[in-house]
Amino acid sequence: REPSIDLLQAFVEHWKGITQYYIESTDENTPAKKTDIPWRLKQMLDILVYEERQQAAAGEAGPCLEYLLQHKILETLCTLGKAEYPPGMRQQVFQFFSKVLAQVQHPLLHYLSVHRPVQKLLRIGGTAPGSLTEKEEVQFTSVLCSKIQQDPELLAYILEGKKIIDKKKAFRESTALPKDTAGHRDKDYPHNRDPQLDRECCGVPALNSPLPAKPEGTENGPGESNLITSLLGLCKSKKGRVALKAQENLLLLVSVASPAAAAYLTQNSSCCVAIAKHLCQLYQSMPTFLDPGDIATLEGISWRLPSAPSDEASFPGKEALAAFLGWFDYCDHLITEAHTVVADALAKAVAEKLFVETLQPQLLHVSEQSILTSTALLTAMLRQLHSTALLQEAVAFLLGTDQQPTAPQSSPCTLGAHLIMHCDHLSDEISIATLRLFEELLQKPHEQVIRSLVLCNLEGRLYVARGSQEPESYEDTLDLEEDPYFTDGFLDSGLQPSTKPPPAPATSSDGKTAVTEIVNSFLCLVPEEAKTSAFLEENGYDTYVHDAYGLFQECSSRVASWGWPLSLAPLDPHEPERPFFEGHFLQVLFDRMARILDQPYSLNLQVTSVLSRLALFPHPHIHEYLLDPYISLAPGCRSLFSVLVRVIGDLMQRIQRVPQFPGKLLMVRKQLMGQIPGEHLDHQTLLQGVVVLEEFCKELAAIAFVKFPPHGPHLNFSPPPEEQV
């Protein structure tokens, strides 16, 4: 052991050299890096690492490490770093701590003479936001997080801060300290000294007083700084690399697999609440009003690249918006990767602080600007949301937990009911923004969304007339001649639906004939005088089939685990008829669809987009109610097809009042395609509505085709030739 004596002498000599500098130096302006302090610290580190490698028995502490612990060198260095003398000393201390903890394999953090200065150093960093030592601070936290990952039981001690020292009376048995640690520590000290006495001198608990599992009074005070607050402070750094590294460290911390550590994070630290509060602070830092179009330009922003794309046009609040969406994406990623206990707690904190306390008052505000901005921001958040726990909280926030059918006259009692009313708002902008919100919500993998909005009202198939025979033909179902829109005089004018489909057979061996009839029912709704796509080299019905196929496959895979029935529930002919209500959501969509000829083009696009999203769902009730033209509706009921029929009836009357209707309609279509300048025309809203109507009917026909058979994605056939449709 002769070399070890030389190592100890060298180690002590280097430490005395550092202390001698403070005794002899009179120049307070010389930077630390220009003194011999960095070199001596490097030599001390090298000696500790070399000594450990030479140890015969693994886990034993050598004389140099004993000296470091006994003489509280780390605590002294921490004090020197806090004093920042000489200038730059704090940086040297952070580096030394990081390297010692990383390179020395002996479990140092179990010693109070190490734990205490580590906590002090965390507080130094936590009280100096934007300091010059951010790079060293984040490296120091990286080492601590790495150690916690290796030994999750350390988490409670690292987070506990100074309370672990102040509350020695609360010491009790803990599993955090391995049973054989005491034996190892007995060997850590030479036999000519009393190990128990040395342990007290070093600040290490006595052999029979292990570190506490959870000292009393573990709640972090508002001014307390620990690893969590240090990491959160570094996450706010203006230096991109520092912030990213701190976020990665925090992610590592919350993903610790130990149930005890996860429980500690949620019950005894302010971790989840602090993360959610920072999200709210970023939200509040954005301008009161943001244009929904500007918000959409930052779609898909990532927490790893939170800065706004430089190639996008600048607008006021762009950087603040990018910072908020980036942190929201980070919260979502944290919840995805975290231990289940932490994930649930963080999701609830985000829901409470951001959704309920911050967003909800703005969504229900009387100010149209407030409603518009908050709705667009919520849509952007839903688009970025992927974690299961946060999605559950978002759905509960928007739609509540009650999935009972709604009554026609029921007053809105949930946020979702108010948002549905916003879909029919006096402001077209708010209606469009809210419809986009629901369209985004419908694409989320959560059954409660479609069940709450649509399915709960379709249960029991009350929309089907009881005791009626299955319809034999299109005419039997619709009775166009009896519709008030279809007067005898009008039918004699020569303007008729382009083609009445032949009767649909009640049954079919392979079903292809039946699906062709359904497809034709939609394709033939718009009269020939109101069709313009054939005059332009434009993608037609086959393009819609291709797009619908991909969207339907995606939707089917999303709902595959929900256990939906494959076929319609049989009707009981003896069951008395009960009033049917389609629900407020479909009611608003149908009302909007009925006004398609009088609404702005952008609003019509959004209404039809949401309806086609709904039609894609492979539930037999949704398929029947939205895509089956042949159902016999109960008295007073309407379906999507019946709404379209009445719109067509209205259109065929209004066509007569528009001079040169076909030419103007073709001109408007060319304007919408950007082929000619967009000059204003008379009846422009009507003409644009007709273009949307034609395209929507083709889209519904394509969806009906790819969904055959209605109950499953068994799509092993190709689209029929154009001449068949």
UniProtKB/TrEMBL annotation:
Every FHF complex subunit HOOK-interacting protein C-terminal domain range: 582-674
Pfam family, one: KELAA
Residue ranges, annotated region (Disordered): 491-511
InterPro entries reported for this sequence: FHIP (IPR019384), FHIP_C (IPR045669), FHIP_KELAA_motif (IPR045668)
First and last residue of the signal peptide: none
Stated family: Belongs to the FHIP family.
Descriptive protein name: FHF complex subunit HOOK interacting protein 2B
Organism per entry: Nannospalax galili (Northern Israeli blind subterranean mole rat)
Gene that encodes the chain: Fhip2b
